[in-house]
Amino acid sequence: VFDRNKDGQIDREEFAFCWNNWIKKIVRPVSVFLVVDVQNDFISGTLNISHCSARQNGAEVVEPINRLLETVEFDAVFYSLDWHPSDHVSFIDNLPQRKLHESSPVSTEEAKTYDTVVFEGPPPMKQRLWPRHCVQDSWGAELHKDLKIVEKSIKVCKGTNPEVDSYSVFWDNKKLTETTLVSQLQEKNATDIYICGLAYDVCVGATAADALAIGYRTILIDDCSRGVDLKDIEKTKNTVTSNNGVIVDSSQVKAMV
Ligand code: VGL
Ligand code: ZN
């Protein structure tokens, strides 16, 4: 149908014309905006990502996210919340109450924040240790006060099982339990998911990977995300693009939805 250039690629302008005028009407995409973990603890609290190696400022995502919420007509908006009980397995101060597996690279005595340990099974479970963060109903678990909460939006809690961490907004890290997001996306017949937030290389990355694995058209919004480690952010981007996801700037989103 489309004319192709000498590299065999279709003309962007022609495609945009066709997309906006008739393809979109036929395929009827359902676009969902998923704002991941824009919570106080990651911005200025106990897991302040600006103290991590990438030295990024989490507060910087609020403005571009608000702009998207104000200017783009998504079919649904979700906000996820890291929502841990006090005895959560990822908190370094809970380590003395738990048993490490013999294969753990560091012992209970040696373990420092951000180290990865292996907990006793079955099966043995790798776990990165974080400072106590996003404890249910605490200030640190609240969404940033300047983040716009749109009408009819839906909140999704994750990480509520004390025994297993949950980076993806779809499933916990052991894939034992799915969150409410899974059924709600099915109900809405969602096709496209726009993902951004904190932390780029942890929860945003894990969520995008799961969205791609399910088969959603997955769009990661780069300038609306901040992370922990630059190398891991690069890895996250590579995983997304090599699995047919796209990474865009927020300025490109309005024209895509
Ligand atoms: C997250 C570390 C621990 C995140 C959650 O939301 O990216 N990071 N728990
Ligand atoms: Zn957490």
Short description:
By secondary structure, the chain is an alpha/beta fold. It contains 7 helices and 8 strands; from the N terminus they run αβααββββαβαβαβα. Helix 5 runs parallel beside helix 6 (230-242).
Explained architecture:
There is one protein chain. With 257 residues, this protein is of the alpha/beta class. Helices cover 27% and strands 18% of the residues. It contains seven helices and eight strands. It has a six-stranded parallel β-sheet, with helices on both faces. A hairpin with a 5-residue loop joins strand 3 and strand 4. Helix 5 (200-214) packs parallel to helix 6. The radius of gyration is 20 Å and the shape is elongated. The protein starts with 11 loop residues before the first helix and ends with a helix. The chain binds pyrazine-2-carboxylic acid and zinc ion. Pyrazine-2-carboxylic acid is lined by residues 37, 82, 90, 130, 198-199, 202-203. Residues 82, 84, 90, 130, 133-134, 159 line the site of zinc ion.
SSE arrangement:
Blueprint lengths: L11 H16 L3 E6 L3 H4 L18 H10 L4 E7 L33 E4 L5 E4 L25 E5 L21 H8 L4 E7 L1 H15 L2 E10 L3 H13 L3 E3 L4 H4 L1
Parallel strand pairs: 1-2, 1-6, 2-5, 6-7, 7-8
Antiparallel strand pairs: 3-4
The chain binds pyrazine-2-carboxylic acid (VGL) and zinc ion (ZN).
Give me some keywords for this one.
257 residues, alpha/beta, six-stranded parallel β-sheet, two-stranded antiparallel ribbon, 27% helix, elongated, binds pyrazine-2-carboxylic acid, binds zinc ion, pyridine nucleotide biosynthesis
